[in-house]
Amino acid sequence: MAPKTEKKAKARSARVQAAKPPAMKKPSASKENLRLEEFLPFQLAVVANRASQMIARVIEDEYDLQVPDWRILVTLDEYAPLSPNEIANYTSMDNPRVSRAQRRLTDLRLISCESDPNDGRRKIITLTPLGKTVCRKMSPEAHSREAWLLEGLSGEERQSLAHILRKLKAWTENLELPESID
Predict the structure, then answer these.
(1) Cα angle vertex 153, ends 53, 60, to 5°?
(2) In terms of residue numbers, what domain contains 98?
(3) Is the pTM of this model over 0.90?
(4) What's residue 167's pLDDT?
(5) How many domains does the chain have?
């Protein structure tokens, strides 16, 4: 193996090891066969994917945007100015996906990307006036879709879900994940 490739392989192995949860008790025999439909990460992914697809239909049809574009716009609307790495952290998207969306959004004149005056290597991204307008137009529809999704829960269940999601997000916040392959 070439030295450079070997370094990359070791670095990737270290990231993957860091992403593994701490050692846990060995599951009982009855839990060894994984039932995907009962596996929490799968259940969360299914609901998240369906919710994202529901939003995607609106933003693709009405605004010709993709879900990563929308996430970046909404994040910038709340927290701008941000660097691409900060956007990746806020949105839990990998850097290549943020970079592709950043190029699209710049081409559409929805964001502007400037060099940081304090660090020429760093980019600072902000919404353009057009980007702010698009965010304002998308928000009511996004809220409407969220409200529809939550109609399936009682008020108490909504509060519990919000509480549980905050706890899980905090619990997983410092988990180092391997870089995406896409």
Answers:
(1) 15
(2) 55-171
(3) no
(4) 95
(5) 1
